[in-house]
Amino acid sequence: MTNAGLPEAVLFDLDGTLFRTETLLETVHRRVFETLREEGLYTSEEPPVERLLGSLGMLLEHIWQRVMPDGSPEAHERANELLLRYEIEELEKGIGELYPGVPETLRKLRERGIRLFVASNGLEQYVKEVPRLRGIADLFEGFYSAGEYATQTKAELVRILLEKHGVRSAWMVGDRSSDVEAGKQNGLFVVGCDYAGFRREGELDGADALIGSFADLEQLIAQRA
């Protein structure tokens, strides 16, 4: 694949890239642990929501190992079910926001003839419902999730996406080390999103470029066109 000029496609992570996940998860996190306590599956003190936000980008099984390491396998499994149910319920109520400039910038990229995809380690329904419920689903050619494709790494998920759609040159845009690794392992130009507030230090090391707001992406592409 080539990094020169205008990319044929741009692949986006979802949480912390397109979607301000903390605007949804603060409510969802509280509801998940209230239900787990009511059902007797988790009796320890509620973990801070920052621990969940800091785990985004991981596979769900690894998220719960980090968020509640003292939780049983049954508690982790139930938390998966509750997380998805409450996320969809709150999204349908209008809770949860895209980052500023996301719809406008995506439309500008489409006008340039660039193919757009989502690649996320999240659950299939969540990865498809966030764009649909926030009015940007029609801008994307496909939605790829670890939940749907049962992939163990973001790099594997991106490889499947590229092969299925015959993409020859692409950019990977995301806010996590898994996005940087996925891009690099597949020979992509990697843009790190330096605006999500719940990253770990050094998360974007190795990215080819950093953007301080989502709208900066269009300018970055224009400079390289």
TrEMBL record:
UniProt keyword Zinc-finger present: no
Record keywords: Hydrolase
Name of one Pfam family that matches: Hydrolase
UniProt protein name: HAD hydrolase-like protein
GO CC annotations, alphabetized: cytosol
Gene Ontology BP, a term: DNA repair
GO molecular function: phosphoglycolate phosphatase activity
Keyword set includes RNA-binding: no
Top-level lineage group: Bacteria
Gene3D superfamilies hit by this protein: HAD superfamily/HAD-like, Putative phosphatase, domain 2
InterPro entries to which the protein is assigned, alphabetical: HAD-like_hydrolase_sf, HAD-like_sf, HAD_sf, PGP-like_dom2
